[in-house]
């Protein structure tokens, strides 16, 4: 079982909806804690309503007192109060349950999705997660580094480790190059590059949410971090390809999360 802590996407392509679709496609039961409500579609985020931290804590308590959670995914937090609540929660489960943190700072259209005063406010949470999965704009904010090539992505990953992260997967989708490269940086082994050709698709909404959820799903199934990232990268690549010819909405559409359910693993609920 996986717990996803994230915001709701009314368009269904990202956020907690994408998480649940991903986890279900990979045969893992999903529980959820909603941190924010967004009014959005494939064209962008129209409005955000933040969930009070007290109610986030109630959701966390409801889930953790009834379900045996094997992995946790953290996405959009929305407010500094919710960040504090989730940080306390991550501290309490530290060492017992793997945690994947996708630091959602802005929507694809540029709307801020976290009201913290500075990236330093995330430092305590980062010390209690198994892996952080920033894209390049997020990694720039979190490290203060310019990132314009793969070597710089590796440096950013090492900077995140120096700030307390145990592992960092820096995603290279924003680089203007023919190949898509993600970089996994770890303390105890060499950095690993995941390289693939870019798929010509307008349906890329929710890619980061999907990848982080897939990593959590595979870790819940017992895979170690590096193998879980490898498996998740393959899943996302196939989901992007399967959804490349599908038209959903009038803007940046979603991946096809259930592209081949018969090929997924046996259910692990």
Describe this structure in words.
- The chain is an alpha/beta fold.
- The protein is 35% helix and 20% strand.
- The strands form two sheets. Strands 3-2-1-4-5-6 form a six-stranded mixed sheet.
- Strand 1 (2-9), helix 1 and strand 2 (30-41) form a beta-alpha-beta unit.
- Helix 5 packs across helix 6 (150-162) and helix 7 (207-220) crosses helix 8.
- The chain is globular and about 45 Å long.
- The termini are close together.
Brief overview, please?
The chain is an alpha/beta fold and 269 residues long. Helices cover 35% and strands 20% of the residues.
- Uncertain segments are none
Q: Let me know the average pLDDT.
A: 90
Question: What overall geometry do the principal axes of the alpha carbons give?
Answer: globular
Query: What portion of residues belong to β-strands?
Result: 15-25%
Residues in helix, %: 25-40%
Strand tally: 9
Instruction: Output the strand order for the largest sheet.
Output: 3-2-1-4-5-6
Q: Helix- and strand-based class? A: alpha/beta
How are helices and strands ordered from N to C? EHEEHEHEHEHHEEEHH
Q: Gap between N and C termini, in Å? A: 6 Å
Fold topology:
Layout: E1 2-9, H1 15-25, E2 30-41, E3 44-50, H2 53-64, E4 71-74, H3 80-93, E5 99-101, H4 123-126, E6 131-132, H5 136-143, H6 150-162, E7 167-171, E8 179-186, E9 192-197, H7 207-220, H8 225-243
Parallel strand pairs: 1-2, 1-4, 4-5, 5-6
Antiparallel strand pairs: 2-3, 7-8, 8-9
Helix pairs in contact: 1-7, 2-3, 5-6, 7-8
């Amino acid at each position: 079982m996986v717990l996803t802590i994230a915001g709701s996407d009314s368009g269904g392509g990202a956020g907690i909806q994408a998480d649940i679709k991903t986890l279900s496609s990979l045969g893992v039961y999903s529980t959820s804690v909603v941190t924010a409500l967004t009014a959005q579609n494939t064209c962008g985020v129209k409005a955000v309503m933040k969930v009070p931290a007290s109610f986030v804590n109630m959701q966390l308590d409801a889930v953790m007192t009834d379900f045996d959670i094997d992995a946790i995914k953290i996405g959009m937090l929305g407010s500094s109060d919710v960040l504090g609540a989730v940080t306390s929660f991550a501290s309490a489960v530290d060492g017992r349950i793997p945690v994947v943190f996708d630091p959602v700072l802005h929507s694809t259209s540029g709307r801020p999705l976290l009201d913290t005063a500075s990236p330093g406010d995330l430092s305590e949470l980062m010390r209690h997660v198994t892996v952080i999965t920033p894209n390049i704009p997020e990694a720039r904010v979190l490290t203060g580094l310019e990132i314009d090539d793969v070597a710089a992505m590796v440096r950013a990953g090492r900077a995140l480790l120096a700030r307390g992260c145990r592992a960092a997967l820096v995603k290279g989708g924003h680089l203007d190059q023919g190949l898509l490269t993600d970089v996994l940086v770890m303390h105890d082994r060499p950095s690993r590059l995941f390289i693939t050709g870019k798929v010509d698709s307008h349906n890329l909404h929710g890619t980061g949410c999907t990848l982080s959820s897939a990593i959590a799903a595979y870790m819940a199934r017992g895979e170690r971090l590096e193998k879980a990232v490898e498996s998740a990268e393959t899943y996302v690549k196939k989901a992007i390809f399967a959804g490349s010819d599908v038209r959903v909405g009038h803007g940046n559409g979603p991946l096809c999360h259930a592209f081949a359910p018969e090929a997924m693993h046996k259910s692990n609920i």
